[in-house]
Amino acid sequence: MGSSCSSGQKDKDGKKKLKKGKGGTDPTPRGSNASNSSVYVYQKAATPPPAAEIPALSPPQSIPVYSEHTVVQKTDSLLASPTLPSQDTLPTFNEYPDHVRHLLLGNIKSSAPPLIKPRKIVLFLCADFADTVKERAVVVEQVIPKVRRSCAERGYELSIVDWELRDDTKGLGVQYLQRQTQHCHLVPVVFLNETLGQRSLPPKISPDLKQHLLETIKSQSEKELFTECYLLDENNSPPQYVLQNKGNEEDREKLLKILWPVWEDSELLETILDTFIQAVLSFDSQNDKNKCIWINRKFHGSQGSEAGALQKRLTALQSSLQSQVEENRKLQFSIRQAEDRSRGVETFLPEHAQYLDALSTKFHKVLNEIVDNIIDDAEKTSPDSGYLGMEKRLYHELNQQMKECKYRLKHFVGQTSQISKIEEYLKNDSKSPLIIHGPSGSGKSALAAKIVQKCSEKGEKTPIVFRFIGLTPDSATTEQVVRSICEQCCVLFGEHPSLASQNMLHLAKELPLLFNKVSPKRPLVVILDGIDQVQFYSSLSLAWVPANLAPHVKLILTLRDDCPQLSELKAFISEASSWLSMSSLTLADYKALEQCSLPLHAVVVAYEASEWSSWEQNQSLQGDVESQIVHVFKRLEEEFGSNTICKVMGYLTAAKHGLMDSEMVDLMSCDETLDPDQQKLTSLWIQIQNQLQFFLKTSLVGKLSVTHWGNWTFRSLAEQRYLGDEGLVSVSRFMVDYFQMYNRRKLDELPLHAHRSSGPIQCDFLFNADWLQAKVCGSDVYQLLEDLKMIESSPDVDLLREVIELSAYALSYDGSQLFSQIVARLPQPDANKYPRVASFYEMAKSNANSSNLMPLGLCLHSPGAREATPDTEIYFDSIHRIKGSITHMLTLAADKGIVNVVSIYEQKVVRTLVGVTQPRVAKMVDDHRALLLCNRELKLYDLETCSFEMKLKGVMNQKMPFYDLHDPLHVVSLSRNRMYVYMTNLTSGDCVATFKVGEDRFLNSLLVSANGKMCVCGDETQKPFPLLVWDMNSRKLVYDLRIPHHEFITRLAAITHDGHYVASVCKEVDDPSPNFIIVYDLQSGTLFKKWKPEVNTCSIAISSEGNCVITGLEDCTLLVWDLVTGACRFSLKGHCAPADHILMDDAGTVCVTFDSTGKDRSVRSWNILSGQVTAVFTPDSPIICCELSSDGRAVVLGLRGQREILTLLLCNRQSVDEAKQKNITPFGNPDNIGKVADVSEAG
After folding, report:
1. Where are the alpha helices (DSSP H) in 217-307?
2. 427-445 in b/e burial notation, b at 16+ Cβ within 10 A?
3. How many CB atoms lie within 10 A of CB 1004?
4. How far is the C-alpha of 663 from the C-alpha of 676, rounded, in Å?
5. Which residues belong to any copy of the NACHT domain (predicted)?
6. CA 448/CA 527 separation, integer angstroms
7. Residues 6 or more apart in contact with residue 858 via CB below 8 angstroms
8. Measured distance CA(1060)–CA(1084) in Å, rounded
9. pLDDT of 503-514, one tens digit each?
10. Would you state the pLDDT for residue 2?
């Protein structure tokens, strides 16, 4: 193909030789700027709609708005709009993963969503106690505390289970191992030396085997002992003889001596340690990554203590461990045996002491590596980065609610008449809520789950919003429940979730407005089970419940007969058809008890009956559910001791959200009235959990697994029996002492317990800057609001509460912006009226404790000044840097025809041009002249004098008006027909050179390096699309870059400042797999780097100064690639929607990202060298445009409804005033400050 370059009008530079590069291509480019780290945007062209057709809340869409470092998402729209869809354009959720869509729509019939493992690591020690006393002491006392602290700092619980190997707990221990393998990160630690330890009796034997053994045993006394120890339990299916645990140790040893020779070579031969190691190896082999640690100690010259079949079993186990455990996780030692061989390891022997030190060091290293790998892998695969604007907290809430609904539904039976009435309500035209009421334990929760299932049968057309109250912190209070369902409705009906972050007063107004958006195309069913079972610090009123629902909305509430809320509802819901009373189970229902665990009385009865053995006599059932539950408590007290059960139930019931396993064991070990042996306490707590497994729930609180009561009646009776008013205060004081240590969970629990025990909650917590910062970052802003509600009203408390309520959405998104939110909302508080808030405000403004994007003044809604009708107008469309200035920028308002020069540190306009025809894009020629794209023409303006200088000849292509600067005297632009690239003189306005590649070759992009030396265009005519590279100084086409069967997506491309490298997104022509990134070395024309992320790339930036390429992915992450090594430096997470804009400073060390679609309203600043987020800011209004100052110290935003720019300073432990004073400089001649010029007649 020929290439040509014309000088003046007709001079041709023909037949130039072309260097062939190794590369490939695709469509649509865009302009550049004079920054050292230049990122250019190429967006797929689309015909702009007429102004009248643009939605009222959308930014102008005539031509793409190009920020100098902007990279735009791969949509076909010219500028993505955060406009909320109408009922005719409801969100489809097709872009969501299937499991997320099913959760959002409440589709109970879908498959279970991916299991979210809690941040819990269980260290399970498997050892013969007698043989490993010293080794286990080293592990438990020297290593575990260090690793546990390290885990806590990273937000993980490390729980150690040093299981007591006994015949009667062997089966439970294996079950526990299996559960932990499925629901947490299990790390088995096997101590296997030269013995298998204590021999084991089988827990059950068949009648045939018992008869055979009786025939084998000769002694009558031995037969009698055997018969006494194994009793027939006909309740087993099939009937079996069960080992009794009531015999003494002497009888057990006798029985072992009797039976062991009989079955020594049979499959019944096993030791307790053998059983556990086999289970560990079985469970560990099912994991993707083997985590087992084997500690093996041998004595020199020892032949071991086992013989015969046991020695064979020991050898086989050691062989299995050798093959299955990774080499670096085998801690094997050989030491000299003490003279008294029965004593094992002796710490007074130097060699043995050195062995224990070596064990401690090596085990600590190996365990740290395993824990680090677990946490790193979990963070990489964790599905909590948000889904296209759906908040991660909502995802976790829906996940747990779906799991609970499926559990409740599993054993549903009966209630056919109630179901029929509910189905009739769902079909009729009633606009009143349906109230289902009944006594505790009457099956309301199971019925609610059945309703969800029935509604799901209608398909995805009807979303079901359901909550089981009290299951999670997000369903523990009225405020949290209403906020959560509002948030889900926002996603379902196209509103931004920030609407659901307000206080109860506004949520009560917002909920009916959301219901009004429901239409026949997407009707809505809302089901709230147990709405009366909220926490005491919650609002108890149901005044927020609409008496008259919007069309196509159905609301179903369940609550107890004896609750005060029932009377409140009756006051404004009078229709008889709106009330449904629960009926008792019929005789037919009770006959199905084996398949049914509901209602609650049947659950407890079935649980009690399942514990009976056929030989037990005088078992009775109680006549009501409360008495039956008390009977359960009494049986636990008999088995484990009344004091033990009193303490365990007290801790569990007093906890705000429940307790982690490690917390329960810690609390018991700190209690002077209980045995301090943690090994025994761990086993005890696991056994109690097993006994109450049908009545306890495990939920995620801040990704940590906590156990709490799963039934309100159980919790209420436990509180009455084990706490009372005085007991509650006493236990709370005890828990305050415990939670004072550093622990992420203290952020949740400590204020409540301090409040109960009359502690100084205001001073120590709510007005403590360090505590508040930790609370919103490590816990939750809505829990902070719950803390504030517990204390008495005062001017300080009321003001702080309103500020936190206004900032709730931002702080829920990222709590690190606490200080910047306070400064953005509060004027200087009156120290006399608000002494504590004033002190806190001064600390926030001085930014003494952290890095923040701090606003220069008030820019967000202030307390008492919330807007009734928000301003939704767009006052400017784009922001551009001014060459050579770090203190001033240029703003363009296309439809208004206004161009402003603004002082970003003073946040005021210093020059104004009005009457400019559709200013779309600006390129700075020098420090005061700007070349503007005005509709389809290029015009040069002097910003210093506010004057028009000239208009360049010709017009631009309507869909692809791409241009950039070659040098201060020449501009390079795509021709109107897209077949040429023109170089135009900025003095004369004439075209001085034309670049062309053959006939009928249509170009679709244009990139020019900031130094003006290299120009890169995409060619959409050739198949596959090539990249064409010109040397602008020699005016020659130097490379035609192609990759066979691939095409470049040139709207996602970027070139370095020096023109050495160009990066572009690329895809295979016939392959639907995710696109990938290529980098070309423009000095040699060779393919320099190629990276293929797991998902599509939607934005890209490159910097030779930072030696990196940054890509934004559709899964909301950002990847930083090293230009030198080709490795991925960092994976940056935090956005809840894809970041389609990437801005970089000149040095290539600071990066700012945001989502222009408005799904994620926040702007994030990153340190590219460390891979850490440096600051976050979430405004109240959608971001229309954004720019980063060339020195990386200021982020300038344009917000919907805001007439002025918003400047955020990246303050690193520096006050706003200090940063501001250093950067106030005039633009040009100070006499021209504030000058306004009408240039409508010019040009």
Report:
1. 220-229, 249-263, 272-285
2. eeebbbbbbbbbbbbbbbb
3. 27
4. 14
5. 432-562
6. 7
7. 824, 825, 826, 827
8. 9
9. 898 999 999 999
10. 40
Q: Average pLDDT of the chain?
A: 82
Q: What is the structure's pLDDT at 212?
A: 80
- Strand extents, DSSP E, 176-265: 185-191, 204-205, 230-233, 240-243
Please name the residue that has the structure tokens 């008030």: 858
10 Å CB burial of residue 353 (0-12, 13-18, 19+) is middle
What is the biggest distance separating any 2 CA atoms in the chain, rounded to whole angstroms?
122
**Using an 8 Å Cβ cutoff, are 947 and 1239 in contact?**
yes
Q: Which two tokens stand for residue 105?
A: 């729509």
Of 763 and 118, the structure prediction assigns the larger pLDDT to 118
Three-class secondary structure of residue 307 per DSSP: coil
Residues 372-385 pLDDT 10s: 999 988 877 665 55
How far apart are alpha carbons 296 and 129 in whole angstroms? 14
CA atoms within 13 A on the CB side of 581: 6
Query: How are strands ordered across the β-sheet holding 1027-1031?
Result: 19-20, 1036-1041, 1027-1031, 1014-1018, 1007-1008
Name residue 162's amino acid. D
Query: Which residue, 330, 336, 332, is CA-closest to 299?
Result: 336
At 802, which amino acid appears? Answer: E
Cα 446 to chain centroid, rounded = 30
Cβ count within 10 A of residue 39 = 28
Stated as kind and residue range, the H or E segment containing 416 is helix 416-427
Q: Distance between CA 509 and CA 494 in Å, rounded?
A: 18
* CB-based contact 1215:851 (threshold 8 Å): no
Q: How many angstroms separate the CA atoms of 820 and 854, rounded?
A: 5
Reported confidence tier of residue 1221, pLDDT bands at 50, 70, 90: low
Q: Which two tokens stand for residue 551?
A: 């069309």
* Tens-digit pLDDT profile for residues 241-261: 887 765 566 777 787 777 777
- In which residue are the tokens 């438990």 written? 140
Q: Percent of the chain scored above 70 by pLDDT?
A: 83
How, if at all, do strands 553-560 and 524-529 pair? Answer: parallel
**Does position 80 have pLDDT exceeding 70, yes or no?**
no
- The structure tokens listed for 862 are 């202030």
| Cis geometry, peptide bond prior to residue 599 (ω within 30 degrees of 0) | yes
Separation between Cα atoms, residue 1200 and residue 1181, nearest integer Å:
6
C-beta contacts of 1059-1064 below 8 A and 24+ residues apart: 1059/1009, 1059/1011, 1059/1013, 1059/1014, 1060/1104, 1061/1088, 1061/1102, 1061/1104, 1061/1123, 1062/1007, 1062/1014, 1062/1016, 1062/1027, 1062/1029, 1062/1102, 1063/1100, 1063/1102, 1063/1109, 1064/25, 1064/26, 1064/1027, 1064/1100
Helix/strand/coil for 1048: strand
Q: What distance in Å separates the CA atoms of residue 743 and residue 749, rounded to the nearest whole number?
A: 10
pLDDT category of residue 144 using cuts at 50, 70 and 90: very high
pTM here is 0.83
The secondary structure of the chain in percent helix, strand, coil, rounded to multiples of 5, reads 35, 25, 40
Give the C-alpha separation, 1235 to 246, whole Å: 97
Inter-helix orientation angle 781-789/746-756, to 10°: 0
Does residue 795 have a cis bond before it (omega within 30 degrees)? no
- Please provide the distance, in angstroms rounded to a whole number, between the alpha carbons at the two ends of the chain: 39
Judged by DSSP in three states, 337 sits in: coil
**Secondary structure class of 541 (helix, strand, coil):** coil
Task: Answer whether 1043's CB lies under 8 Å from 24's CB.
Answer: yes
Beta-ladder partners of 698: 707
Structure tokens at 617: 């006599």
Tokens 């070990």 -> residue: 669
